[in-house]
Amino acid sequence: MTTVRTRSRVHVLALGGTIAMTSPGEGHGVRPALNARSLIDGVPGLADVAEVGFDAVRPVPGAHLRLGDIQAVAARAGELLADGADGVVVVQGTDTLEETAFALDLLCASDRPVVVTGAMRNPGMPGADGPANLLAAVRVAASEAAAGVGTVVVMNDEIHAARFARKGHTTRPSAFGGAGVGPIGWIAEDRVRVPLRPARRVRLVPHGGAEPPPVALVTVALGDDGRVLARLAGLGYAGVVLAAFGAGHVPDALVDEAARLTESMPVVLTSRTGAGEGLRATYAFPGSETDLLSRGLIGGGALDPYKARVLLSLALAAGWDRRRIADAIERLSA
Ligand code: ASP
């Protein structure tokens, strides 16, 4: 006799964030307090959607997370999915969610959904969005519709592909968007809709230590004279991401320093604008994209600076060379 499983099994990995933050009393700010069990118990109707298990991973603000934590979460998600879970939900602070979700997208090999969610309003606020986001995330994790699209971010009843998700507002429940792309799906009542699917995925397997190699992120600003870039070489970084102006431009004072850095580490050229793909062959002034690419910088394609930094760090942990990193960026941009 075969056993027919009628209910989906979804596992929640809880990492803290506003969704789990309460205040010890009037006049005090909020901090991580709710455990995974109370988060789950606080969502009416959740048990009707799926059989929900949980791990309390680490009750921290999003700002305290590191890539090494996310490597551990990816490994645990892999175990759970290999063990027959239908999907995994990662609950965490929204401050770093766009970076961690992209890291999970690169690290998780399963086609079953890995869904990242959180809240913009803490449980003590009117209109707290945590319970609705967690319910929607569990629905997505249990669904067939979200299988095979990679890690997604579920907030405000929208589904965003992790590699395009951006937090674009400090406080609104609608803070998350897909930079220049928009959501790939949505949740309406109990229906999970995913009409758009990212064309290609990149997966990597880091090896070595618990924390991947450090990558510096340098945002270029008006009149930057290059003194920060000039000091980077001796600080122990394994790579650099430049968040440049527009389509990939820097002040001419930075060009020699950026080129020098490429002799010792990969330097990825991205845009600080927040959306769009870097150019390759349009401008030709000193510090333009053609100048910088000809001096050995790697074009960041359609990756924003934060995503490029995550990719570069994990790719270095996986032992990838510059060619392979550039190929992955091209694949993720297409
Ligand atoms: N504002 C953040 C959040 O929405 C705080 C954090 O990232 O922990 O969760």
Provide the β-strand percentage band.
15-25%
Architecture of the largest domain in CATH?
3-Layer(aba) Sandwich
Mean pLDDT: 95
Distance between the termini: 47 Å
- Tell me the domain tally: 2
Largest sheet: 8 strands, mixed
Q: Which regions have little confidence, pLDDT < 50, spanning 5+ residues? A: none
* N-to-C order of helices and strands: EEEHHEHEHEHEEEEEEEHEHEHEHH
**CATH topology of the largest domain, anyone?**
Rossmann fold
Number of helices: 10
Structural class: alpha/beta
Net shape: globular
The CATH homologous superfamily of the largest domain is called L-asparaginase, N-terminal domain
Short description:
Helix content is 28%, strand content 21%. The chain has 334 residues and is α/β, with parallel strands linked by helices. The model has no long low-confidence stretch (mean pLDDT 95).
What does this structure look like?
With 334 residues, this protein is α/β, with parallel strands linked by helices. The chain has 2 domains: 8-193, 3-Layer(aba) Sandwich (Rossmann fold), CATH 3.40.50.1170; 213-333, Rossmann fold (3-Layer(aba) Sandwich). The protein has 10 helices and 16 strands. The strands form 4 sheets. Strands 4-1-5-6-7-8-11-12 form an 8-stranded mixed β-sheet, sandwiched between helices. A 4-stranded parallel β-sheet has the order 13-14-15-16. Strands 2-3 form a two-stranded antiparallel ribbon. The model has no long low-confidence stretch (mean pLDDT 95). The structure holds aspartic acid. The site of aspartic acid has 10 residues, from loops.
